[in-house]
Design a protein that fits this description.
By secondary structure, the chain is mainly alpha-helical. It starts with a helix and ends in an 18-residue tail after the last strand. The radius of gyration is 26 Å and the shape is globular. The strands form two sheets. A two-stranded antiparallel sheet has the order 1-2. A two-stranded antiparallel sheet has the order 3-4. The protein has helices at residues 2-20, 41-63, 66-72, 78-94, 96-107, 109-132, 149-178, 186-220, 223-243, 259-271, 330-348, 350-359, 362-368, 387-412, 420-446, 460-483, 490-519, 536-559, and strands at residues 26-27, 250-251, 297-298, 566-567. It has three domains: 21-255, MFS general substrate transporter like domains (Growth Hormone, Chain: A, Up-down Bundle); 258-287 and 296-335, no CATH class; 341-566, Up-down Bundle (Growth Hormone, Chain: A). The protein contains 18 helices and four strands. Its main location: membrane. It is found in: Membrane.
Length: 585
């Protein structure tokens, strides 16, 4: 009895020690195992949210009114301006694929954030100089019909410098923020779920300020003053981010390309294509928990069984060690399955980006063609209507996080409340409703008598629906691409999330070109030189139909999806010929 009590006591001491330190392959700024009480969680995440806040204000301050700058200052027509705006926004969400990969494979997430933030600041500085330095200004006078070529070059150089900075900044910062929470600790895991909600809340506050305060300064003070404010604010938060260095948890510096293990699994499974998978998955090769020092081990799943062949131990290699291109562990196989299973979800999420693109391009031009007067003395800037979508998100995120989730946790016994894909599905329903409402409002606007102008207040419903939808699909997509990819590829996962938006902007531009080509043959194109001679209502109806079909396909895939689960107990078999295969965290 005495021995048993001592054992239990020792167990409590050991458990207490486990709670004191963070054992998730992260280190503190001195390279030691992090102390749970003094690192990570909200004390570190607040610095991350602060620099994200300033970056998003800068991004939305530029992007929300970019189409107005291109048409009013650069004097581009609607089609050219819309395509240029979409191409830049697409670049800011596709370049993260490269930045995320480099951060995961070579530099580490923190170093990539620091480097990219400086590149971003350089772009903001160039943008500011293009408005204040006389030789770089659009023209000598306040009004001109054609800007200087040098201004066009510097302006677009600044924009794409910002896009390049975003490429490393966005995926690595968000995954770095997620790294501040220990996924194996129940309380920290719940806080991490809230982190993505408050990340989007911060994003929405930034959008609200950018589309009201920054846009107002751009329209009624000057573009240069607005860009100067954004550059100074970004500089201050970069300094603040450095202050948080002692509080962060850092992932150990990567030393390999995370795509190599995936390629090894594919090659190994092809080599052993003629073998039969064992009925008992415990016979497949896996590193014992006691010998695993690089991250979590994943549970076996029954999907994509062909890949399981990569983990079959062949008889001829029982006595000798097989190389990683011949034998993989179950964890590596499951990580490969994760990447392959991401593809269909990613494809069905692209319509989210297409519909979001309308909110900062065609919706803005709609607003510009409507009655913008709120009172006799105040006229709302067209781009400021996007603040309503931010308002919708700001209201819905706290309600979801503080009211709906706790209730659903108790009712359903699920720590998330609603599954990740379930939340995306609800967001996709909002997208269908959004495009239907947008089409109806635009049709009403076009039917107004020639001497009357429709009030911009009619756009409130579609912007609010867009904002509420953001609180579902955007947050859920972030969680999905962080949680459902290999732990070593989380920055790449965040890049995949951003690429949904980026490729959505490119697809939007592509659709505009195709629709203009097809409908313009009879002289009545849906996308004309201005919104009054266009038929945007028909374009929106087309997007509503495509979104509805996409929703059906998504629901079909979601019903058959299996989520990633990690092992917490040593239930794996020990096979000596696994020694040549490193586990990917």
């Amino acid at each position: 009895m005495k021995q048993e009590m001592e054992k239990r006591k020792g167990g409590r001491i050991e458990e207490s020690d486990e709670e004191k330190w963070v054992h998730d392959a992260s280190v503190d700024y001195k390279g030691r195992i992090p102390l749970r009480a003094s690192t990570g969680v909200w004390k570190a995440s607040l610095f991350v949210l602060a620099i994200e806040f300033s970056e998003r204000i800068a991004h939305f301050g530029i992007s929300s009114n970019l189409i107005m700058y291109l048409t009013e200052v650069m004097h581009e027509d609607l089609k050219t301006a819309t395509n240029n705006a979409n191409l830049w926004k697409g670049a800011t969400t596709l370049l993260p694929m490269i930045g995320g990969f480099l951060g995961d494979a070579y530099t580490g997430r923190f170093r990539m954030v620091v480097f990219s933030s400086l590149v971003y600041f350089k772009g903001l500085s160039l943008l500011t100089m293009s408005q204040f330095i006389p030789n770089l200004k659009p023209c000598n006078n306040d009004i001109c019909h054609q800007p200087r070529k040098v201004h066009e070059v510097v302006f677009f150089l600044a924009l794409y410098c910002i896009a390049l900075g975003t490429g490393g900044f966005k995926p690595c910062l968000e995954s770095f923020g997620g790294d501040q929470f220990d996924g194996d600790n129940l309380e920290e895991r719940k806080k991490k779920m809230s982190f993505f909600n408050w990340w989007t809340f911060t994003f929405s506050i930034a959008l609200l300020l950018a589309t009201t305060v920054v846009v107002y300064v751009q329209d009624f003070v000057s573009w240069g003053v607005a860009y100067l404010i954004l550059a100074m604010f970004m500089a201050l938060t970069i300094i603040a981010f450095y202050v948080g260095i002692p509080f962060y948890r850092y992932r150990m510096r990567p030393n390999a390309n995370p795509f190599i293990p995936i390629l090894q699994v594919l090659i190994a499974s092809i080599r052993k294509r003629n073998l039969s998978c064992p009925s008992n998955p415990a016979l497949l090769c896996e590193v014992p928990m006691s010998e695993n020092s690089q991250g979590r081990l994943l549970n076996h799943t029954s999907r994509l069984r062909f890949l399981d062949k990569a983990a079959i131990v062949e008889e001829k290699y029982i006595e000798k060690k097989a190389g990683p291109w011949r034998l993989a562990t179950v964890t590596r196989v499951e990580e490969t399955k994760l990447i392959l299973n991401v593809v269909p979800i990613w494809l069905t999420s692209l319509m989210i980006g297409v519909c979001i693109a309308q909110g900062s391009t065609l919706f803005v031009k709609q607003a510009a063609a409507m009655n913008l007067k709120i009172s006799d003395n105040f006229k709302i800037p067209p781009a400021s209507m996007a603040s309503l979508s931010a308002f919708g998100t700001i209201i819905s995120v706290p309600i979801y996080d503080r009211i709906i989730v706790p209730i659903l946790r108790k009712v359903r016994g699920n720590e998330r409340g609603i599954s990740i894909l379930g939340r995306i599905g609800i967001g996709l329903i909002f997208l269908v409703i959004l495009m239907v409402v947008a089409a109806l409002v635009e049709n009403m606007r076009l039917r107004m008598p020639g001497h009357e102008t429709m009030s911009v207040m009619w756009l409130i419903p579609q912007y609010l629906i867009l904002g509420i939808g953001n609180s579902f699909y955007l947050i859920a997509l972030q969680e999905y691409f962080y949680d459902e990819v290999p732990d070593s590829m989380r920055s790449v996962g965040m890049a995949l999330y951003l690429s949904v938006i980026g490729i959505g902007f490119f697809l939007s531009s592509f659709l505009i070109i195709i629709v203009d080509h097809v409908t313009g043959k009879n002289g009545k194109g849906w996308i004309a030189k201005d919104v009054n001679s266009s038929r945007l209502d028909k374009f929106y109806w087309m997007l509503a139909v495509i979104s509805a079909l996409n929703l059906c396909l998504f629901l079909f895939l979601a019903k058959r999806f299996t989520y990633k689960t990690a092992r917490r107990k040593a239930t794996e078999i020990d096979c000596s010929n696994c020694d040549g295969v490193d586990t990917v965290a």
